[in-house]
């Protein structure tokens, strides 16, 4: 970590590995293979086709997928996927698609699906202020549902599924925007997984879509090409000019995962340690730090917590900024505090945070009533 | 220009100014204001809101627009605009929208419009192999057309409008993807101008849309938010996570235009000189180099030309690559050769190209029959 730099605990766009940033910084001037700035390389070049091929192979390899899936790199973020999924699988269908409403992000997908067809909210955590996820026995999925949609990690509320919900007979679709490639994943139990890049795998401006070949076959004929998984797949993510730089960044991140970290299991072990250290600080604080989510549903990616008063939270943020700890404010929809611990956040950065939290609690304990 | 680097004459993504690349390379490690990598800065930060505000002001200022317009920064390229425009202005309308079909790119917009409503191709250059643009008297625009759509510059064929076609009473919509901010433009004669960034103003992955307030008021109610100009405008291009890095790059490019170049008139003068030097080489070659477009319609941005045989063209490309001149192949749809002379291509780079062309012609003149 460059000592001049602030440590980044932002909810996203988040930190990227220091070695990747170094390579990108050099490639901005001169990408080694082509001798051009990476921003000036044609998306129709052999170089870029090889970038896409290697990136797809790296993602499939990290997930242990042998066949039957394709990987697309699209624009428009998870938001565009909220629409493309029901355009593909719900338009003209009478059985309702099933959605789990477990927090801010999974909730946003639902009105977009309703534009295209019927939706059944299989579980809604809003009455409980999104403080817990459903347990498996609470989900009565219909065997004929066109698909089940959920988000594996809720960044705002700091909750993460520790099991795979739904029936294997119903196409399972998952928004993994905030934990894709952060841990092993039984990808072959999913019909479609999507993840925007700006948490764990790259910069804002590109979204990974991993989907079964049979989903591609079900695309209706009348969609504009950029919203059509089949057209995008046929064009190898080059239907129209793709975000070359963002895709190249993802390639470097997947190389880092393979070569520097080793595997998704190894990444998971590091992520578990990081989260454990922050949650341990919360739990040892005698209520000075108050975790937002139920303990069983705690996210390894986003630790959402509160202090006794909004004023004390503001003081925490000011002190943290002054100490070079950036991005610790909670999401604007819920306020409070949040430490995001995406793949590129190092154990050393987490230790700095935890020690800052211990000091702050020590100094301000008098301010916490009861 | 970094002496290690190849000179980039690519049709796009194209060259960017050397000083901008240098600033980006540093901001990849540490953006000066925030102390973070530019890839890790939140799109909800004050920093990013100021980037968007300054970028919008720079674009309006360069174009001399005082009021009545907004500037949006969207994903999805010009391709997404091919759909958003008719979704907004043609859905449910009975009078046909008017399209000028002057080359590869303007042609691509037409089928996307037909999905939404009736289209009248006001002029079609295909029977003449897209070797000329229409003259003003050839365009019989209907006063009640919902809009007229055309492309100001055809990158593939190397043709550029030197006048503003259509009636001022019909909303004029222009794809300026390949010449936006390359010359002064009477922007207030347009209802909507769009331009993807990757020619003159930034990297692939972001598209500028400049539109009159009254267009925003005409957005139908039932569009997904990311396809809705009103939702995007209300959110100040932050409806969902925008491509922060690409937008920041555009800010640096507009600063370069204002501070280093001075104005769009000054940029135009440089671009005129560059194109004049290349076309002069074509015209002085006694038919060794054969310009594709009619002389009056020649583009300042893209010089499309041929040699006597495809074999000689391949030899030209190999020799050019060996001499450090990159990206001179023609578009895959037409083949041949093309020198793209976007804003960031320097006069010095053009002189190197012209001198290479003179040498190549001298050495291979025997190969050109007649």
Short note summarizing the structure:
Chain A is of the alpha/beta class and 370 residues long. Chain A has 10 helices and 14 strands. The first copy, chain A, has 2 domains: 20-261, Type I PLP-dependent aspartate aminotransferase-like (Major domain) (Aspartate Aminotransferase, domain 2), CATH 3.40.640; 263-367, Aspartate Aminotransferase, domain 1.
Give the proportion of residues in helices of chain A: 25-40%
- Class from secondary-structure proportions of chain A: alpha/beta
Count up the domains of chain A: 2
How many strands, what sense, and barrel or not for the largest sheet of chain A? 7 strands, mixed
Strand content of chain A: 5-15%
In the CATH hierarchy, what is the superfamily of the largest domain in chain A?
Type I PLP-dependent aspartate aminotransferase-like (Major domain)
Unreliable spans of chain A are: none
CATH topology of the largest domain in chain A: Aspartate Aminotransferase, domain 2
Q: Report the order of strands and helices of chain A.
A: EHHEHEHEEEEEEEHHHHEEHEEH
**What is the straight-line distance between the termini of chain A?**
39 Å
Radius of gyration of chain A: 21 Å
Estimate the mean pLDDT confidence of chain A: 95
């Amino acid at each position: 970590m460059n000592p001049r730099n602030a440590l980044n605990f932002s909810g996203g766009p988040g930190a990227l590995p220091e070695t990747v940033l170094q390579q990108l910084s050099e490639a901005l001037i001169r990408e080694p293979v082509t001798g051009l700035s990476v921003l000036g390389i044609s998306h129709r070049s052999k170089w870029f086709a090889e970038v896409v091929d290697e990136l797809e192979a790296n993602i499939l390899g990290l997930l242990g997928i042998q066949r039957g899936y394709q990987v697309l790199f699209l624009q428009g973020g998870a938001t565009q996927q909220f629409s493309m999924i029901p355009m593909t699988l719900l338009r003209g269908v009478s059985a309702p698609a099933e959605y789990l409403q477990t927090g801010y992000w999974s909730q946003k997908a639902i009105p977009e699906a309703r534009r295209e067809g019927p939706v059944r909210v299989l579980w809604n955590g809003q009455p409980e202020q999104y403080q817990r996820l459903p347990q498996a026995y609470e989900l009565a999925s219909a065997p004929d549902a066109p698909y089940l949609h959920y988000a594996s990690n809720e960044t705002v509320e700091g909750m993460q599924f520790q099991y795979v919900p739904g029936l294997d007979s119903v196409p399972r679709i998952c928004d993994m925007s905030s934990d894709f490639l952060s841990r092993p994943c039984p990808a072959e139990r999913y019909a479609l997984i999507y993840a925007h890049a700006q948490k764990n795998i790259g910069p804002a401006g590109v979204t990974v879509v991993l989907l079964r070949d049979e989903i591609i076959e079900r695309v209706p004929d009348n969609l504009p090409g950029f919203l059509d998984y089949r057209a995008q797949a046929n064009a190898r993510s080059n239907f129209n000019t793709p975000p070359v730089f963002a895709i190249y960044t993802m390639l470097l991140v997947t190389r880092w995962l393979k070569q520097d970290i080793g595997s998704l299991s190894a990444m998971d072990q590091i992520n578990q340690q990081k989260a454990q250290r922050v949650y341990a600080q919360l739990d040892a604080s005698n209520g000075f730090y108050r975790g937002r989510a139920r303990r069983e549903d705690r996210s390894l990616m986003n630790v959402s917590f509160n202090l006794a008063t909004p004023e004390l939270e503001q003081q925490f943020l000011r002190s943290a900024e002054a100490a070079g700890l950036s991005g610790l404010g909670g999401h604007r929809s819920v306020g409070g505090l949040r430490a995001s611990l995406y793949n590129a956040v190092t154990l050393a950065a987490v230790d700095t945070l935890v020690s800052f939290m211990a000091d702050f609690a020590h100094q301000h304990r008098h301010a916490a009533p009861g």
